[in-house]
Amino acid sequence: MGYVKGISFVLLWYIGIIWSVIYIYAPFFIILPFSRKLYRKATDIILSCWEMYPVSLLQLMMGCRICLSGDEIDPAESAIIIMNHRNRLDWFFLWAALLHGCRSPAHRCNVRWIPGIGWGLQMAGFLFLHRNWKKDKEFLKRALDYFKELGENYLILIFPEGNHLFDATKKKSNAFARKTGLPGYDYVLHPRTTGFTFLVQQMQKNSRLDAVYDLTIAYPKTLPINELDILSGKVPEEVHFNISRYAGDTLPRDEQGIKTWCEERWAEKEASLKKFYSERNPDRRRLSPKVRFARPLNAMFLAVVSWTAVTVFTTYLTFYTTWGFYYTCFSISGFLLVSYFTYGIQNFELDLFYKYDYHNESK
Hints:
By secondary structure, the chain is of the alpha/beta class.
């Protein structure tokens, strides 16, 4: 039954992504050359609606419970989210935390190359990085300045550890710690602070840093490591998030101060997670004494029914109508060309802005 549920969950989610991107997202691409602001608002609304679907499947179909403690996330703020990286799927479970831990639905998390989800996230303005700091620094600056000029609020997720926690990365991280006189960690990796420091300083410079949200994620029982675990039905019974909000004006402004601030948060995570996992009874593990168990929302039942219906209907259009088949082939070809011969739709969006809007405004 685990494999049946796991495969059904992944198929519903993934097929739903592909057809939603092709039939709902793609038509809005024609707006982009004419109005960046309208395009951004339209794609953000679609993403917020769609993201409820995989979260609803996760909770209603797979029985995963989301446990929250600490502060709420305000999506009306421009903020940075930092989080420890326990496995390759943390970003997916974060969607559930954002749904239940925000004052209202929100979001902006690398899956760029995956057909379907990668295309949709390109259109949604997700910031995909090269893992080359020279290129990434320039791209991040352009993107942050772009959102500032549009007057858009945004949440940027960054995993300062740079990789998820497993034996090889832990060994490498602690080897670095020994060389630099830092303590060894068992439950987190030492953070790489270059990207985080740049984001903080650039957003401070733009007067757009309202807050930094520090999230600690933990899995008290089942721990999936990668996508194959989900296919086999290995979904965590619970995922715990502790959220701490730090006002933007309380962060240091100098590079060393920001670096030290981030390292202090990771030392706190290590202590918190050590205490969490030292509890022998998984049912009693808590990141905080005050835990909010996120109950399924009524809208989640509607999301499952409506988005599954959309998936079935668009599947029918694709394989049983001529225009649907050719439209799908045309859309997929377009996404593939843009994704593999440029650095994605999000870069094309920035290029249009800096060539036309920004140039005209500067005049």
